[in-house]
Amino acid sequence: MAFVAIVRRSATRTTISLATRLICGSQRCSNITTNASAAAFELTDFSSRFYSFGQGCERWFSSGRSSSDKALLEIIESEVECAKETEEPAQLEELPPEFPFKIEDNLRQEIIRLTREYNGETIRVEVSMPDLVTGEREDNDVDDEEPAQNSIPLVISVAKIDGPSLEFSCTAFSDKIDIDSLSIKSPDAPEDGIAYEGPDFSDLDENLQKGFHKYLEIRGIKLSATNFLYEYMIRKDSREYMQWLQDMRKFIIA
């Protein structure tokens, strides 16, 4: 039942950047009060970085810049203020119990990297930005199909010392982790080669599928970890969006 709470919190945070950008872009912050709960940003030290946004702009606006550049900067300023209006207090990322990975998170990158050592193996995980469900259905959707869910893509590599690695491509949902494909990567393989990824994972014997899922679970790829990573990436998306706005502003004003 603990993960039900995680999923409920995530349902709000899935719209953090998407809803905020739509609100800020189309309504110019006029509906921020009623939409704040659905468009919440978790900002670290960005508020202080953007405090001087307006101070340097007065000189810039009087410097003979084109009217289109000035209009663009005004829109960026509005986006920043709109995001600041909906910010949540900064929170420390609370690791789930027995989370075994070290997290490498670099600003201006869409992925984070996880690493750990396990019984002579080096395990690396690349976590990408979440795939968010907006509620819109494709025309070819079938009513009896499973409803779409928010998810995060994972690429997991389990490497032996000076030997080959087993690479999994996975999709993590709130209630399950799907293995999409897996392949053996040899360190001696040519860089331009394409490794055979085997048959569709769903076509494998059911016991073999369960065995590979257990293989990953023992090495730390379990729902408690992926649900945490989902929320972590939602917050990262908010931080990256704010940094992107800052970079755009600096480029235009330079």
How widely separated are the two ends? Answer: 52 Å
Low-confidence stretches: 1-16, 27-51
Strand/helix succession: HHHEHHHEEEEEEEHH
Radius of gyration: 22 Å
Biggest sheet, strands in spatial order? 3-4-5-6-7-8
Computed structural class: alpha+beta
How large is the count of helical segments?
8
Structure report:
- It is built from eight helices and eight strands, in the order αααβαααβββββββαα.
- The chain has 254 residues and is α+β, with helices and mostly antiparallel strands.
- It has a six-stranded antiparallel sheet, covered by helices on one side. Strands 1-2 form a two-stranded parallel ribbon.
- A hairpin with a 4-residue loop joins strand 6 (152-160) and strand 7 (165-172).
- Helix 1 runs parallel beside helix 8, helix 2 (16-27) packs across helix 6 and helix 6 runs antiparallel to helix 8 (223-253).
- The chain is elongated.
